[in-house]
Amino acid sequence: MNDSNPESPAPDAAPDAAPNAATKRLALITGASRGLGAALAQALGARGWQIVAVARTTGALEALDDAIRAASGPPATLAPLDITQDDAMRHLCRSVHDRWGGVDLWAHTAVHTPPLTPAGHIAPKDWDRTLTTTLRATGLLIPMIEPLLRARLGTALFFDDESWRAADDTPRKFHGAWAAAKAGQIALARAWAAECAALGPARAPRVFIETPAPMPTASRARFYPGEDRAALSPPATQATAILDRLAAAGMAV
Q: Which region holds residue 82: left if phi is over 0, alpha if psi is between -120 and 50, else beta?
């Protein structure tokens, strides 16, 4: 994080801590430098939210901060980190806890999309990076971020992607690596959602899974080179629609 010196968090990082009443609503966005993550950060920032933006590319994060400020939003807190680096993410979560006491919204958009390839020809480096970024990191981030969400009775937001499956939910050919990682991530999010729902909103975060319309993102361009991008929905449009649905579900956005 660009303005703090976080330390490793305690294992039981204060799930019952009350947030400072003077603190703005806080959104932690992992994968905030481009695409839907950046669009959500800009939309929330324009509504007065404090944004903690996590991504690997410092320049893109700085451009995001400029866009939020241009829309009269508060300066974003930029965290140029790789979500697969466990210790770095633990440091970040402890810093967020110490500074703000919790998180109102965690939007997890960070993934790695591998090249399309037959299952018999998946390169080990593509397989490892896809699983590490899309699936493994999600499984480790949930325990880190859940106490921050509990502290503010917050919401976690995940994103499914229909590109990897056909109408009958079977994986499309050549999408095996992406399908395995993304289906695993969504299964994990659904299990967490069911567990939180059983505890109730006074004791656990609310977990939502959105499936945005196809967008002209860099990830989609890897799958569909040459596609007519004008026919796709802009990330800003999808971000607004998602926030509207959260508002309809009772979240103050």
A: beta
Q: Which of 35, 189, 181 is nearest to 106 (CA)?
A: 189
For the whole model, what pTM was predicted? 0.89
For the chain, how big is the Rg over CA atoms in Å? 18
Number of neighbours of residue 203 by Cβ within 10 angstroms: 12
How many domains does the chain fold into? Answer: 1
Task: Give pLDDT tens digits along the chain (253 positions).
Answer: 665 333 333 333 333 333 443 468 999 999 999 999 999 999 999 999 999 999 999 999 999 999 999 999 999 999 999 999 999 999 999 999 999 999 999 999 999 999 999 999 999 999 999 999 999 999 999 999 999 999 999 999 999 988 888 878 888 999 999 999 999 999 999 999 999 999 998 999 999 999 999 999 888 888 888 889 999 999 999 999 999 999 999 888 8
- CA 76 to CA 44: how far, in whole Å? 11
101: which residues sit within 8 A by CB, 6+ positions away? 14, 17, 18, 19, 20, 23, 151, 152
SS3 state of residue 211:
coil
Task: Confirm whether 17 is domain-assigned.
Answer: no
Tell me, what CATH number does 140's domain have? 3.40.50.720
